[in-house]
Amino acid sequence: MVFGFSANMFAGNPDRQGEAGAYELMLNPWARSAGLHTLTTSMTTGVDAMRINPAGVSRINSTQFMVSHARYLQGSTVNMNAIGLAQKMGENGAIGISLMAMDFGDILVTTVDQPEGDGTTFSPSFFNIGLSYSHTFENKVSVGILVRGISESIASISAFGLALDAGVQYVTGPKDNFKFGVSLRNIGGAMRFGGEGLSFQGESPNNNLSYEFTANQRAAKFELPSMLNIGLSYDFYAAESLRLTAIGNFTANSFARDIVGAGVEFSFRELFFLRGAYRVEMNTGDETIGPSAYTGLSAGAGVYVDVSRNNDTQFQIDYAYRASNPFAGTHNISVTFDL
């Protein structure tokens, strides 16, 4: 399925950049993968995988619950909140559900006559919910699929759409050192806004009659920001307690520049983690299209604590920072329970 859809992914051209909608689908609220600039296509697992590669959802022990908060581009007053649950089904399968919502704060209502605001406010409602299933074959190959509902609305207009994610992960090596992953994200039909906010009152087109009537405008359709991710990683063990993972990833965007990046994750006893990554946008020679806000650098850290005597319940807290210009970067913090 992934490679079958990929032919359409590469059919775009730089002239299409910025023409899609629902760009919140490209945002990552989870701190664990955000610390590696969302380059973890090959190694993401559990709830985190539902935002990057659904094939990794089944690579959990039993149950995983995660909540996260992110300050998107600090200074913009935009926040992201997310919650997710992944549950093992049998020995090799797993299902998952995740919800992400955007918080834009209170925005002043302005008019032509009152450009400084009329004393009232509004707040857009952007959220999406995903349902996924993943299956692992002999601990080597896992596949996954996710269906996501997308809702965007303000007081008088709204839009709703469906998107499909699919992916595969392959693991091999003496200690499962080498990991390879491919995912295709945000494949779906075009969305369109509708509602009373697009209606207006006008004069009768018949010159012989004088009356007002209400007409409805039709908003233009917009596509989803589909993308193809290809990633790999390799674990280096200096001792039983020390692990260094090198990560590489390529992202082909249909409505934005392609991205290539690399990162590393250092682990001590699988309890303390340090992460860092750097990504660059390709084909930046066209000066008519400016770069994205992210400057390319990301960093993160995590602490995992066993909260049960038999080590089957683990509490995890992760933090991530992604540098940006302008604004003061994006800050993510996530709390995870592995049962």
Account of the protein in words:
The chain has 339 residues and is mainly β. It has one domain (2-193, 223-338): Porin (Beta Barrel). Helices cover 5% and strands 52% of the residues. It contains three helices and 18 strands. A 14-stranded antiparallel beta barrel has the order 1-2-3-6-7-8-9-12-13-14-15-16-17-18. β7 and β8 (158-172) form a beta hairpin. The longest helix is centred in the first third of the chain and has 8 residues, at 2-9. The radius of gyration is 22 Å and the shape is elongated. Mean pLDDT is 90; it is low at 5-12.
Task: Describe the structure using short key phrases.
single chain; 339 residues; mainly beta; Porin; 3 helices
Instruction: Give the number of helices.
Output: 3
Low-confidence stretches: 5-12
Strand content: over 45%
Oligomer: single chain
CATH architecture, please?
Answer: Beta Barrel
What is the CATH topology? Porin
- Strand line-up in the sheet with most strands: 1-2-3-6-7-8-9-12-13-14-15-16-17-18
> Could you tell me the number of beta strands?
18
Provide a brief overview of the structure.
The protein is mostly beta strands and about 350 residues long. The chain contains 3 helices and 18 strands.
